[in-house]
Amino acid sequence: MVAMSSRPLDEPVLRIRPRRGFASLNLGSLWTHRELLQRFTGRDLTLRYRQTALGVIWVVLQPLLGAGAFSFVFGAIAGFSSSGGTPYFVFAFAGLTAWGLFYNVLTRASGSLVANAPLVSKVFFPRLILPCSTVGSSLVDFAVALVMLAVLVLIGGASTGWALLTLPLWVAVIIAQALGIGVLLSALMVRYRDVQYVLPVASQLLLFASPVAYTLAAVSHRGRAWLQVNPLTGVLEAFRWSTLGGQEFPVSALYSAGWAVVLVLGGFALFARMERQFADVI
């Protein structure tokens, strides 16, 4: 005798399947939880300079001191020159302004999950919000430094022309590269705390392997070929092209833009794959 199911034949069947492709990234959750994203960004800005004597002045002071050090070491001692007749100090400050945006997004995003371990382990919300919220605070720091750069450019007499209109594009490429790597490292840091010790060393190596304190023209032909493999090289050159002028458009910036897309998609995809384990292992 065959047992009959008590479920009506016309009752709908619910099938739960994992998301695939771009849907697995769940990027729509960032917009749905945008208020939470804004709160995390505001909290980060509030806490960053609390109990510091100079406060937000450090945002300008850090690249100024760095540009001064680079001017002495690379300009006075090593004899490096800038492009287009721009004073070397302004040249170095522009490079450090772009580098500072990349570095801040990268390091803050990388440590965002571990820094908020109690929230990750006890409260349900889209974890992607934490690394993405660091972009807002990093942009505020960048905007302050960019104003100082504009003052230095006016004093130095540089002329950028229409190239300045492309600046938002290069800023977006820098953020995309840093966020793509930072999101991936934040997921890895949950399981492997070694990442937080390797990252500062790797960042220092990347700083000197990128045209922050020098131009590609100052490097040998063989060294230039290696530097152009670096995804940051093109966008750093393009950033200076748009803010300082005096040079041809760096075609390698398109290579940097392509890498930005790859890093964002790859970093977000791996983050989505590892996210379900965060609460258990953090």
Portion of residues within helices = 55-70%
Q: Which oligomeric state applies?
A: single chain
Order of helical and strand elements? HHHHHHHHHHHHH
N-to-C CA distance: 53 Å
What does the radius of gyration come to?
23 Å
Mean pLDDT figure: 84
Number of helices: 13
Total strand segments: 0
Main sheet characteristics: none
Overall geometry comes to globular
Secondary structure layout:
Elements: H1 28-32, H2 34-48, H3 57-77, H4 88-110, H5 112-115, H6 117-122, H7 129-156, H8 167-191, H9 195-208, H10 221-227, H11 231-244, H12 252-274, H13 278-281
Helix pairs in contact: 2-7, 3-4, 4-7, 4-8, 4-9, 4-11, 8-11, 8-12, 11-12
Quick synopsis:
It is found in: Cell inner membrane. The chain is 67% helix and 0% strand.
Structure description:
It is a single chain. By secondary structure, this protein is an all-alpha fold. The chain has one domain (31-281). It contains 13 helices and no strands. It has helices spanning 28-32, 34-48, 57-77, 88-110, 112-115, 117-122, 129-156, 167-191, 195-208, 221-227, 231-244, 252-274, 278-281. The radius of gyration is 23 Å and the shape is globular. Pfam families: ABC2_membrane. InterPro entries: ABC2_TM, ABC2_TM_bact-type.
Task: Give me some keywords for this one.
282 residues; mainly alpha; 67% helix
